[in-house]
Automatic annotation (TrEMBL):
The keyword Nuclease applies. This is Endonuclease YncB, thermonuclease family. It comes from the Bacteria. One of its GO terms (molecular function) is endonuclease activity. The keyword Signal applies. Residues 41-153 form the TNase-like domain. Residues 157-173, 189-215 have a biased composition (Low complexity). Residues 154-227 are annotated as: Disordered. Residues 174-188 have a biased composition (Pro residues). Residues 1-21 form the signal peptide. InterPro entries: SNase_OB-fold_sf, Staphylococal_nuclease_OB-fold.
Length: 273
């Protein structure tokens, strides 16, 4: 009896292993609920600062790349001007940004948006009217919008710095000439004029009137001697010969005939006065 009981106990595990096990039904997995992302719409945002002529940063940290335009790079002169113009229009302003349908961000993660200023003007239209910004062809802006920008564009974009003329060399200052010494005034010695010799007193004219002549003078005058070698026209006697001058005679003579020697210049009857 004891042996039979042991055999039954040893067969119980085998019976348990061979007994059929009821299967648990597997339910099918629930289908995932599709999620849809709403397309971005217009936003009113505030600009924190401007990065360059066509990019700016919002106060929440997002960056916006303006659709339809391309400004000169900020390391050029025209690019710096574009940044300054964009700063004057956008920095600190509350603007409206609007996406192009089907377009959200570029490969750098920047929002691609049209931008409207608080006064209703289009930011891109204002920028293409200046030489530092041109129309961005082949971008994500609509064809109609690009056509409108072309109409506002003032011409090809110019990003080359204008050549600057080399500064002129400052000429060296001219040396100031030393002042000329003032010559000492010349001292003129006083002129001494030698006194002119007194003119010799002319001998008194003999009176032509025999009544006023003193007897002594009349007696002293020799009478012309005809045939004695004296000229008959002169008294006192003058040699009758070659022509004589007053300097040869040395005294007055009375002309009593033709004045052959031309001694009486004033025809008063007295020669060599």
């Amino acid at each position: 009896m004891r042996v039979r009981h042991l055999i039954v106990l040893s067969l119980l595990p085998l019976a348990a292993c061979s007994a059929p096990v009821a299967s648990t039904p597997v339910l099918p997995a629930a289908a995932p609920v599709p999620t849809t992302t709403a397309a971005p719409g217009p936003e009113t945002v505030r600009v924190d600062h401007v990065d360059d002529g066509d990019t700016f940063t919002l106060t929440d940290g997002r960056k916006v790349r303006v659709l339809g335009i391309d400004s000169c790079e900020g390391d050029t002169g025209p690019g710096r001007t574009a940044t300054a113009d964009a700063t004057a229009l956008l920095e600190g302003a509350t603007v409206t940004i609007r996406p192009e349908p089907g377009v959200d961000r570029d490969r750098y993660g920047r929002l691609l948006r049209y931008v409207t200023l608080p006064d209703g003007r289009d930011f891109a239209v204002l920028m293409v009217a200046r030489p530092h910004t041109g129309v961005y062809e082949g971008g994500d802006a609509s064809v109609a919008y690009v056509v409108g920008l072309r109409a506002a564009d003032d011409g090809p974009r110019t990003c080359t710095d204008a050549p600057t003329a080399a500064p002129r060399a400052t000429p060296a200052p001219r040396a100031t000439p030393a002042p000329r010494a003032t010559p000492a005034p010349r001292v003129q010695p006083p002129r001494t004029t030698a006194p002119k010799p007194a003119a010799a007193a002319a001998p008194p004219k003999p009176s032509s009137s025999p009544a006023t002549r003193s007897p002594q003078t009349a007696a002293a005058k020799p009478q012309p001697l005809v045939g004695s070698g004296c000229h008959p026209s002169y008294d006192p006697c003058l040699p009758n010969g070659p022509d004589l001058d007053c300097k040869d005679i040395g005294h007055p003579v009375r002309v009593i005939g033709p004045d052959s020697y031309r001694l009486d210049a004033d025809k008063d009857g007295i020669g060599c006065e």
